[in-house]
Records
---
Amino acid sequence: MSTRRSPSVPRLAAPSPGEKIAAALRRSPIYVDPSLASALPEADRRRLIARFRKVPVPVFVVLVPLVKGGTWSDDEQLATVVHDRLGRDGVYITFRESGDELGAREWGGDHQARDAAWAVSLDRAMDDAPLAARLTRIADLIISGTGTSEYKRISAEIDRRYRASGGRSAEPAAGKDGGPGLALPLGAGAAVAAAGVAGFLVWRRRRMAAVKRADGGLLLPRKVFATARRASEDQLREQASREVLAFGELLDRTDAPVSDERAGALMALALDAYQAAGKTLDAAAGVPDLAGVLVLVDQGRDALASAVAVAEGGAEIPPSPLCFFNPLHGDAASAVDWRALGTRRSLRVRCCRACARTVRDKETPDILMDRRDGRDVPYFEADPERSVWAETGYGQLRDDLVHRVLRGDLRRGTGG
């Protein structure tokens, strides 16, 4: 007697995270990760959807946490994947990698969505606004077609106030997650208040610098680091080589007059940084050195951008350092007080928002490791006599990193 077997039913592969979001967007143009549900209540979502119907193109809002090493690590990756899975052109609004700021990308047209989102991020009046209000403002700017003009207006105002402050580089007091903490005690002196205002303007100018980076101008685009932190050592070496080459070509193309003494000094610094980056690349023995190449390129391009700005009669562009704990994390958007284990000295360092949150939670941030005497140690715990990166904190603890590399200090840090 033979036994008939039931034909096996093939199991369908589980949908990917991008496919799940796309499926949700086919039902509603707003997708909010469950962990963020309280940030945008249902009533707000209904009002936003009604507002989006007046936008001349489809609008999709995708609000999910962007976490290094997680499913979504940067906003460009998120928007690109979801657009591909959904298969519909339009405006895609997400959080930016830098925190809870909103960014927008558009496929299939140009309705100034990107500029509208940046205008909202730069607008002081929107700093404490609820998420729904910021999304509504972006939609209104797109509807009215004034996203670009509003961005330019706010940028010009920031530039005007920055120049009026004398271009001072005072740092704003760090607020929650590294935001500007401008609450001064009653009766604070005028000098303190002026420094606070100057620091606030520097912080705003750094936001504007992020826009210029995204535009592919003189500053190093921050998407470089979204790739670098996921790269293998060989891939990182290739990327560092490309960035040094691109920086050299940029220097060759720059013909701004540098007769002004300050512009000339900044251009000299840019050229020195380029030379230091090439020297470091040639001698690089591992990831810490390759990260140093990107730091030097970043410093050089900051100096070049400032040289051009000064030569054209403008103000210097405040340099934006990279994360102290790991430069491959990208922008150091936050300032924290930090003390290494086993030490008593507390340092004020700048780092990415993810590392800042980790430090404030009394946990260990994701630190760049160096290989020393056969074991992995945090790069800043390497012997400063053998590591220029440990000695300078990749330029955060000292402002003469370029000079030290050019005079030969790097050789101490390449022995492994």
---
Amino acid sequence: MTAHRPRFLTQRLLTAFLALLLCSQSVFAETNGDTHWITTWSASPQPTWEGDFALPTRTPFQFWNQTVRQVTQVSLGGDRVRITVSNQYGDEPLVIGEARLARSEGGARIVPALDRPVTFSGAQEITIPPGAKVVSDPVELAVEAQASLAVSLYLPEPTPPSTFHWDGLHTTYVVQGNETAEPTIDAESPLTARFFLTRIAVDAPRGQGAVAAFGDSITNGNGSSLNANHRWPDFLTERLAGKDIAVINAGISGARLLSNRMGENALARFERDVLAQPGVKSVIVLMGINDIGWPGIPLAPNKEPVTADQLIAAYRQLIAQAHMQDVRIIGATLTPFKGALDETPMVGYYSETKEKIRQAVNEWIRTSGEFDAVIDFDKATRDPKDPQRFLPAYDSGDHLHPGDEGYRAMAEAIEIDKLL
């Protein structure tokens, strides 16, 4: 079998190329009709990292003849749905043997009557070349706003988890064999990362749009309750109910403005994760605290400290890119971090010198007038008695990430009329 592997891969790649060509023609045809696709959910892709990094990936070595079921909560509803599956960081073709989309009934359960097959360019199986992504054909499934969906992918070949989203904050269910259509699956290896699934879009009426939340672990929701949808973008979705506005989360835990490691730097991924998302009209940027905090700790022991001017220059680049695409860009102040991770091996994340950089950055965000609007998350979450710290009721306990109530307070601090 090994001797025939190169020929097998060549056939797979040829099939993938033809599928991608047909898929692009289908997308082009639909954009010229009455169809209006809007991203209603996203998970920004990351490459896995080597074992010498201070944080483990918490992923299996590979999937093989297994079904991966992932539960998501959309923001905006619609009558038809498309999913995007990515092999962006893969070195080999990614084979999807079968995919299905269903309403989630909680946990690993789906609603059988609301379970639909997913095809790609008319085919049940598709092979995705390295570095590529594929968009599914439209799935006829009426989805309400804030509905929970389950996407089940069958991976028949040995498949390293090369393209993933590390901090999914939802249980991912993995079971042996093709059980994509099973009403419930008995997961052998529950995980909390996401794999290959990067976007869900809905066919929504024209005039509707999306707000992207672009950030790091505080946008991604680290410190909030598992499977609860208690990130600040989730609470913002609740506030926008009935206003025909989607909210998509483009946060990556560990993300930085200027450097790679747990995902690419902000300038490298801004177009992919925000500007290229269908329907995006505005973006909220909350990023920079890791650029300040990482240098000198095990996450970046040899990294030189950043300056406020370096971070401001990066913000200006994001502003320029957004405005070239007629996307409104809103700056959010960096939240308090005194005592951050002091009771972990990451001690040193906070220092008085680093705090001065945060203060300088926040002052620029508030007063420069270069963002289209400002959200003061710092003011919304800080302790009036010790403004460099979170209000205790909002602290997850690590003094860097809010807890559920802190994320709720952040969403409530957003003036809705500033968004669009």
---
Amino acid sequence: MTTSVKYPPGLVALFLVEMWERFSYYGMRAILILYLVDRVENSGLGLTTADAAAIYGLYTASAYILALPGGWIADRFWGCKRAIVVGGVVIMIGHVLLAVSGSAAMVFFLGLLCIAIGTGLLKPNISTMVGQLYDKNDIGGRDAGFSFFYMGINIGAILGGLIAGYLGENWGWHWGFGAAAAAMFFGLINFLRASRTSLRDKGGAPAVHHHPDAATGRRDHLFTGAIGGLVVVLVAAAALTGQINLTSAQGLAQAMGLIIVTVAIGFFLNIYLAGDLSGSEKRRMIVLALLFVAAALFWSGFEQAGSSLNLFANDLTQRQLGSFTVPASWFQNLNSLFIILLTPAFAAFWIYAEKRWTIPVFVKFGLALVAMGLGYLILVPAAHTAATGVKVTGLFLVCTYLLHTVGELMLSPVGLSTFSRLAPERFTSQIMGFWFVAASLGNLMAGLLAAGMDTEHAAGLPDAFTRIFLVSAGFGIVLVLLARPVTRWALGGSERIEETAPAQ
């Protein structure tokens, strides 16, 4: 496939499926923390900011870490299509449970669990199917295609934030959750139709999975068992020594962080050491591990949108436009709006650049981190003003979301493209799951960071925003400096792939 084939048959169908799924996810996410902290007499759960932020982080982290077993199930048993259908059904059930939960907290949390499980099945596999539409060395076309696909994500996100956010804040929280259930139903119907037409030859069940030899199989099983055992031992040790408190939301979030880090490292080592990889595949895995760390750091700052930045908009931002009060949740839609506006320019640029020069993926990720950090630097003077008790103009958040969007467009669709391209062929869905584990870790870190950024005590916000800027921008600059030597060592100076047979 040439780079001129940017949008092959099937891409539009996947675009629409992801659009409706993201409507349901982001529509619910827009109001989740507001619902959790709202007073019980207003039909909220009446939680503290710290507990609500921890629960928010736990939920979003769970939704993404479950992409790892979701990819594994598709690679070994179901194939992408079946995993997506089952995931969509479970997501829809989860949203229905949220809508009917009333004051029953356990029903509400069961609904969150269903959404997390369904998202874990759907997210890595629909991205894998997008990757299957492109030749591995069509870097520019693949980046452009994933950028277009990413626009679908954000059309769904902005519609979900607007509709579910408005219904939740003005009609009642469970109206917003119900709207998300309806959106997932439309997404599921669209995918079932596309499966019989433009996607009929994609995402089928895999051939019978087997290891090339008994020794490789034993190593795989040994590593898998060791990972599970290590997770249990580490969490138990941390609980027994008082490092974490498993009876609190914040303690559970800390335990989840320990689980995510352990699983991520164990998963990487399992494929690297027991995956029967060639030398070039192992070097590409190291590249993916470095990008994983960068992505987790990026998402830890970016995903403050649903927690601390959402509360900043709600409590510290002037939202009155004449007689209309702008819902706080609507500020999150700025990100999606900017993505829709900027994606065509970014997609065209990736095609243009591919024909003239190569921009290393490390440079793209590094600049993304710098842009995200600058978004927080802009908020520092706003936080100083808010600390005096004066609400600030919404233009500060507009500028922050614009910079975060620029960073996201340099990292997220590029990351999807790169992970689908550099992954060893037989582990593609699992490696896509590994990419989403970075988002899982970042979301959890975002929740824990937000717990320390209470808008009721705004005096600490300037220092918190400054620290995020320094860490993010500093790591981004390091990535840019590493781009050339790492690309030369791991990829032979070029990101194009020469197919090699597995090591014997």
